[in-house]
Amino acid sequence: MPINLSFEPLNALGYFESLVQSDTSFPLLEAAICLGQMQLPELDVQGVLSQVDIWQQRLRQRVPQDAAPMARLMLLNQYFFRELGFGGNLNDYYAPDNSFVHHVIVSRRGIPVSLAVLWVELAQGIGLDAAGVSFPGHFLVKVNLQAGQAVMDPMTGQSFGRDELVRMLQPYRAGAMEKELDVPLGLYLQSAPGRDIVVRMLRNLKEIYKSHRYGAQWLAVQERLVVLLPECWSEYRDRGLAHALLGNHAQALSDLECYSVYAHDSVDVDAIGSQMELLRAQLAQSHATRITPPGRQPPG
């Protein structure tokens, strides 16, 4: 895939921010592709979009104008899973590459949410009423058909019945309050907004980078989460912790202070307070070091 220098590294975050300002016409595929600029700052986003457009055009040529939704769905799954060969990366499921659409396009392997972004784009392009579903533990896709709604695994195209979906929910309902147990299955199958899908992709990356203490990568993820969720104070907290890991004491303190003001009733308020005191001490020490004149050199 050709790569150009359309975007300088420092502009990547600004480009992403410009895409996600409004939910009215949220460009899901483009925003998801832009996450790849965290890994490859010079990524040609438009080039990746063009590759998907080529697949879209080829698929459209195969679909008769009067084809019923079920026929369109079968053609899509044949093309996506068999001909293009997309599927889950079960051998290295937690690799960061699985969340980057540009890499998934090349490797043909990903995780449910990254595969769903591509699958839904192609589905909507051939007239299917398709959407992603932010199901607990496993991102799904769904299509409205004449006979009802089909809910599928974006890694395989397998369709799930009601009983299977209920079983998939059981681990997440264990220990839930009685009111939560009464939540209808349909509420778990609502269409996920584009913003929520990109947030889920970023939080998958966040867990990987945070657990491995990859500070720079974690910070890049947090910058985008704060852009997407400007009133989710826990993301400011985590951006502050990423800054602290990198030794950016002033930025870390600023974010943690923001969190302490707006999320003052959180259970971790004492731990964050201790972290802030440590950062203030480190900043004071750094400031004292800068203003103390060098010692006199001994005669020689």
List the keywords.
alpha+beta; 2 domains; 4-stranded antiparallel beta sheet; two-stranded parallel sheet; 57% helix; 7% strand; disordered N terminus
Describe the protein.
- This protein is α+β, with helices and mostly antiparallel strands and 300 residues long.
- The chain has two domains: 9-188, no CATH class; 231-291, no CATH class.
- It contains 14 helices and six strands.
- It has helices spanning 12-19, 28-34, 45-62, 69-83, 101-107, 112-125, 162-173, 178-181, 185-188, 194-211, 215-228, 233-246, 249-262, 269-291; strands at 87-88, 109-110, 130-133, 140-145, 148-152, 159-160.
- The chain has a four-stranded antiparallel beta sheet.
- Helix 2 (28-34) crosses helix 3 (45-62), helix 11 packs antiparallel against helix 12 and helix 12 runs antiparallel to helix 13 (249-262).
- It is globular and about 75 Å long.
- Residues 1-10 have low confidence and may be disordered.
Break the fold down into its secondary structure elements and pairings.
Blueprint: H1 12-19, H2 28-34, H3 45-62, H4 69-83, E1 87-88, H5 101-107, E2 109-110, H6 112-125, E3 130-133, E4 140-145, E5 148-152, E6 159-160, H7 162-173, H8 178-181, H9 185-188, H10 194-211, H11 215-228, H12 233-246, H13 249-262, H14 269-291
Parallel strand pairs: 1-2
Antiparallel strand pairs: 3-4, 4-5, 5-6
